[in-house]
UniProtKB/TrEMBL annotation:
GO terms for molecular function: ubiquitin protein ligase activity. One of its GO terms (cellular component) is cytoplasm. The active site is at 899 (glycyl thioester intermediate). Keywords: Repeat, Transferase, Ubl conjugation pathway. One of its GO terms (biological process) is protein ubiquitination. PANTHER family: HECT DOMAIN-CONTAINING PROTEIN (PTHR45622:SF69), UBIQUITIN-PROTEIN LIGASE E3A-RELATED (PTHR45622). InterPro entries: HECT_dom, Hect_E3_ubiquitin_ligase, RCC1-like_dom, RCC1/BLIP-II, Reg_chr_condens, Ub-ligase/GTPase-reg. Pfam families: HECT, WD40_RLD. Residues 616-931 form the HECT domain. SMART domains: HECTc. RCC repeats lie at residues 87-139, 140-191, 192-243. This is HECT domain-containing protein. The keyword Repeat applies. It comes from Chrysolophus pictus (Golden pheasant).
């Protein structure tokens, strides 16, 4: 090899990171070899500094890294980098430009420091420039920091950075290799494209220019050549194209060779081209030039690329399939210690776990806030293998258990989130130790910042349905364990007020809801909750502990808990020696039918907050009876009065639904009182026939209404907005001349965004227009009346248990439902002075089943005060048919006592008379009982 070629070889690679071989000494230095790192065959790392030519300093041991297995090293001009097998990056040396990446202002840090900004990211390679540092992850994410005066960090500006910064411009380019010059950087993509950025004054970027580049730019001259290797010198770059078996160079070599170049090389040229002859040999014969150049190219390929820096480099510890199979098949004691060492190395490191289950089909190179890059099938396969060996499984679990408290609450990369997807599936064994570790995992997840938790939720939502279902099952098990374990301690421990596993389960439910309910609600129910609620009551534990996690209850149990919670608030206890009595606090509520709303409003305006905790006892003046039926009747009549168009309280739509008015200033406290009335109905377990759209119930539960909700309220407008979203013709859309405004009643115009009247709706912005329109109608325009309504609702229903109900459940609870099962109604009847076999009873059911559906609904209102079915079906609605024992049955009409759901049915002489009298009763009593 010629001296010139040797100089190029040393100069091109001396500042690069090199792979660490277990059986040989590895040497890494800066460009002028004044700073040298030496990794010896015994695993020790040494450092040398030279202050003057021909004066080599004594090697000093880097003691702080003595317990770490180093896999990669790199030297800048005055700083060092070392990557460990456990995925930790350490830096030390000069820090005048932040090139150590440790967020420190100290100009010199002599001892290795952990780069915490890269915690958990599985690194593939590290590289050091003159005073900047660059790393690339296993999934192609590039991070840079340090000096940036020429844009060598690729961040689009020239400001220095003292901590790792993500190079967003390379996000989609699958980087696999990096190299740094003094002030420039080169990045190689998986597809063989070369990107350069930073100082370009000597042509070292290869863009046929001497301009600096602040963001990565592809080297166009090499487009399609599929570069496999790149190496940067101080002011030049070398690349290797295997398909052509050529080494290309560009940049400046002045001062490095005996035969100095007269001009910089601005584009990549092969080293054996006529333009490059002067780099490697003096002017000789043509034959000698070719011979020398060929020898030089072969030396570069063999000594430089293939032997010293072929990639992938030695990397961090990750799981290998053959290793895992060996763990399981060979459990002899002599092999156990090496196995434990590998397990400890991988599972004590967040980075190693994140790098161990990559989707090798290339998906992991697309890792983002939506794509995890994890091969979940590989995770499950690993779990199945280790679960067959108790010793291996126990060791893996132990290391995970020790790792979890150290997980960062603010991950820096989407690659950090893989650990939260992987670990639950490795801990799914049904035993107490796994449950304990899963609880720690739940705590770690809940420590995440809000924005980071949202990223994890997005990744959960993109799991395959089977994997998501499995995740739910795992957290259901640990949630049940978390609920039962304190109960088993009886009164020896205080029951926890926060159960992390249940919080995760509730979050998973919300993720499932936003994803369109891939799993039905019953997948989240915990069947044992009925017994647990009973134990809570026996032990005097407040049910408020459970109310925060509604996803684990079915509707029936939610209703039961709500009733119990309301009863708790409406009760007081008198304790006597040997005797405990429970008394219900009641609010006597007298009203007159002829001025019902007036009386209700007066009661509500004059009430104290404590009165709303009492159960309502309604009395209609001049009428007999009391009980649940009269409460239902009060709310039913009041709702109808409020929703009467003549009342002017709500806006009415052709859909038959009502909504808040846009301008509510003239309504005083009407909506506060209306909300209070609705809250009282919930607290007193009564239905109210308010024709509200589902948008109201979503807003009550802090769920954002959608276009579909607007379409339910105003079908014509909803359909038009959907057509706008579907329109394919840009010309047709623009011809409508729509702008970002909303026309109000009376001709006033409201801009949906600033300067909206001058912004035309196009295909580009139509989604924004529709979203703003929906938000205005259902949120912004009714903000004041809705806020008043909710303040009243919270006053009227002091029990927090109503928040357990989902929007659709809250709608059913308040309005009842219309899934009528009339045969179940018959099944639930109890008879007084009658037997089921009596002819009158047989005639009644024969007549009833022949009635049209609307007449059956009126009969339901006749005996109960509402034409809606109470939640959970008619099995909870038991009504009575009683013989009034009148002397002349044919002269009497059927009557009802709504307060206790009783139908008084005389013994008519014929079916025809019964039918005539029954129809008259339910038609002309306006759906309400006579008593």
């Amino acid at each position: 090899m010629t001296k010139e070629l040797h100089d190029v070889l040393i100069f091109a690679w001396s500042a690069e990171c090199v792979q660490v071989k277990g059986e040989e000494m590895v040497r890494c230095s800066n460009c002028d070899e004044t700073h040298v790192l030496i990794y010896s065959c015994n695993g020790k790392l040494y450092e040398q500094w030279t202050t003057a030519p021909d004066k080599i300093s004594k090697s000093s041991l880097v003691r702080e890294l003595g317990n770490h297995d180093i896999v990669q090293i790199a030297c800048g001009d005055h700083h060092s980098m070392a990557l460990t097998a456990g995925g930790h990056l350490f830096t030390w040396g000069r820090n005048t430009h932040g090139q150590l990446g440790v967020r420190s202002q100290d100009p010199l840090i002599s001892q290795p420091q952990l780069v915490k900004g890269l915690q958990g990211i599985p690194l593939a390679q590290i590289a050091a420039g003159g005073a900047h540092s660059v790393v690339v992850s296993l999934s192609g994410a590039v991070y840079s920091w340090g000096k940036n005066n020429f844009g060598q960090l690729g961040l689009g500006h020239t400001e220095d950075r003292d901590c790792p910064s993500y190079v967003e411009a390379l996000e989609h380019w699958k980087a696999v290799f990096i190299s740094c010059g003094a002030d420039h950087t080169a990045v190689l993509s998986k597809d063989g494209l070369l990107y350069t950025f930073g100082a370009g004054g000597a042509g070292q970027l290869g863009h046929n220019s001497t301009r600096n580049e602040l963001t990565p730019r592809v080297v166009a001259e090499l487009w399609g050549a599929r570069v496999s290797q790149v190496a940067c010198g101080r002011q030049h770059t070398l690349v290797y194209v295997p398909s052509l078996d050529e080494v290309y160079s560009f940049g400046s070599y002045q001062g490095q060779l005996e035969s100095e170049r007269k001009a910089n090389q601005l584009i990549p040229l092969p080293i054996n081209s006529p333009e490059d002859n002067g780099k490697f040999c003096q002017e000789n014969t043509s034959q000698n030039v070719i011979k020398t150049t060929a020898e030089g190219k072969e030396s570069i390929i063999g000594l430089l690329f293939k032997k010293r820096n072929s990639y992938p480099l030695n990397g961090i510890a990750t799981l290998k399939r053959k290793e895992v199979n060996a763990w399981i098949s060979n459990s002899s004691s002599q092999h156990w210690e090496p196995v434990k060492k590998i397990i400890r190395l991988v599972f004590s490191s967040e980075a190693c776990i994140n790098g161990s289950f990559l989707d090798k089909r290339g998906k992991h190179f697309r890792t983002s806030k939506e794509i995890s890059g994890v091969d979940m099938a590989n995770v499950l396969c690993f779990y199945k293998k280790i679960s067959k060996n108790a010793e291996v499984y126990k060791e893996v679990q132990k290391e995970i258990n020790d790792l979890l408290p150290s997980l960062s609450s603010s991950p820096v990369s989407p690659e950090n989130f893989r650990v939260y997807l992987i670990l639950p599936f490795l801990l799914q064994q049904k035993n107490s130790s796994s449950y304990s570790t899963l609880k720690l995992l739940a705590e770690a997840i809940l420590r995440l910042q809000k924005k980071d938790l949202q990223t994890l939720e997005c990744l959960w939502s993109n799991l395959e349905t089977d994997h998501f279902k499995n995740l739910v099952v795992i957290f259901k098990r640990v949630s049940l364990n978390s609920l039962i374990q304190p109960l088993m301690c009886n009164f020896s421990v205080e029951y926890p007020q926060k159960i992390e596993a249940l919080q995760i389960l509730q979050i998973l439910y919300q993720v499932n809801s936003r994803a369109g309910f891939r799993l039905q609600d019953n997948h989240f129910y915990i069947p044992e909750m009925k017994e647990i609620v009973r134990d809570f009551l026996i032990m005097g534990i407040p049910l408020t502990v459970l109310i925060k996690y509604p996803c684990i209850f079915d509707m029936q149990l939610k209703l039961a808990i709500h009733v119990l919670e309301c009863n708790r608030l409406s009760s007081y206890f008198n304790i006597y020696p040997g005797l405990s009595n429970i008394f219900k606090k009641q609010w006597i509520f007298p009203v007159r039918r002829e001025c019902l709303l007036h009386d209700i409003w007066n009661h509500l305006r004059n009430a104290t907050n404590s009165q709303f905790t009492h159960l309502l006892q309604v009395l209609f003046e001049g009428e007999e009876g009391k009980g649940d039926g009269l409460r239902r009747e009060l709310f039913t009549v009041a709702a109808k009065a409020l929703c009467d168009p003549q009342s002017g309280v709500f806006r009415h739509f052709p859909s038959g639904l009502v909504w808040f008015p846009r301008q509510a200033s003239g309504h005083g406290d009407t909506f506060l009182l209306a909300g209070t009335l609705l809250g009282m109905a919930v607290y007193n377990h009564c239905q109210t026939p308010f024709p509200f759209p589902r948008a109201l119930f979503k807003k009550m539960r802090d769920v954002e209404p959608t276009l579909e909700d607007l379409e339910e309220l105003i079908p014509a407008v909803g359909r038009n907005l959907k057509n706008i979203l579907k329109e394919e013709s840009e010309h047709k859309l623009e011809s409508l001349q729509m702008t970002f405004v909303q026309m109000e009643e009376g001709g006033s115009v409201v801009e949906l965004k600033k300067n909206g009247a001058n912004i035309l709706v196009t295909k580009h912005n139509r989604k924004e227009f529709v979203d703003l329109y929906v938000n205005y109608v259902l949120n912004e325009s009714v903000q004041k009346p809705f806020e008043d309504f909710m303040r009243g609702f919270s006053r009227g229903c002091p029990a927090e248990s109503w928040k357990m109900f989902l929007p659709v459940e809250l709608s059913i609870f308040l309005l009842g439902h219309t899934n009528y099962d009339w045969h179940l109604l018959k099944k639930n009847v109890k008879y007084v002075h009658y037997k089921e076999s009596h002819q009158t009873i047989m005639n009644f059911w024969s007549v009833f089943h022949k009635l049209p559906e609307e007449k059956k609904k009126k009969f339901l209102a006749f005996i109960s005060g509402s034409d809606r079915i109470i939640p959970c079906g008619l099995e909870y609605f038991v009504f009575f048919i009683e013989d009034p024992l009148c002397e002349n049955p044919d002269d009497s009409y059927p009557s009802a006592r709504t307060c206790n759901y009783t139908l008084f049915l005389p013994k008519y002489s014929s079916k025809e008379i019964l039918e005539e009298k029954l129809l008259f009763a339910i038609e002309y009593n306006e759906g309400f009982g006579l008593w």
